[in-house]
Amino acid sequence: MTAVIDYNAGNIQSVKNALESLGESVVITADADTILSADRVILPGVGAFGFAMDKLKAGGLDKVIRQVVEKGIPFLGICLGLQLLFEESEESPGVFGLGLLKGKILKIPEGENIKIPHIGWNSLEKTKDCPLFYGIESGDYVYFVHSYYLKATDQSDVSANTEYSTTLNVAVSRGNVFATQFHPEKSGKTGLKILKNFIDYKG
User: Fold this and answer.
1) Active-site residue 70, yes or no?
2) Superfamily (CATH H level) for 2-200
3) What is the pLDDT of residues 154-187, one digit of tens each?
């Protein structure tokens, strides 16, 4: 059973639908005991970094997420869910993220023919072996909706990049923690394969 954390930050139903299409049992919940008893946990999200951190803290979910990681339960952050794993974001100065991984969330630089937010399909460049990307090739396309991007302090955490105005770190993995800036639930067959790899991951 996969627990999808509910903290009023959008795109939860589409994640649930994608997982159920793969035959996975899914519960959308903010209950700590349910989350901690799940086989795997997903933190989705769209919206502002500071607002989302306030929501997580208000429900004690920041502490629950840390417990999930400490227990070794497979964990996947999606879009804003990736950004929240890191220390801080230019979007919300003075707000500290979960700090589970080291790095900053920066505004995508403006440039010629660069539209912000970045909405649409971009190709992945895999940077290391990662269980999420079994059967996925560099050059495969995934779907993005974001204005901010990750610059990881430790590039060994980064499992994929894409190019949009600059090099964006768009997927990370360390131990039982995985995250994608793109939306696998909206990325067609490639995204479903990534979700299936997460479901199948045993650690």
Assistant:
1) no
2) Class I glutamine amidotransferase (GATase) domain (3.40.50.880)
3) 999 999 999 999 999 999 999 999 999 999 999 9
CB 97 within 8 A of CB 58: no
> Which tokens hold the place of 3?
């627990």
> Residue 112's pLDDT is what?
84
C-alpha to C-alpha distance for 194 and 190, rounded to whole angstroms = 6
CA dihedral (109, 114, 120, 125) in degrees, to 10, reads -60
Q: Which of 88, 118, 130, 183 is catalytic?
A: 183
Q: Which amino acid is at 192?
A: L
Q: What residues pair up with 76 in beta bridges, in sequence order?
A: 42, 178
Residue pLDDT, tens place only, 1-15? 999 999 988 779 999
**Domain extents for the chain?**
2-200
Q: In this structure, which amino acid lies at residue 76?
A: L
Instruction: Tell me the sheet residues that pair with 77.
Output: 43, 179
Catalytic residue among 79, 91, 118, 146: 79
Q: What are phi and psi of 120, to 5 degrees?
A: 140, -165
Task: State the pTM of this model.
Answer: 0.96
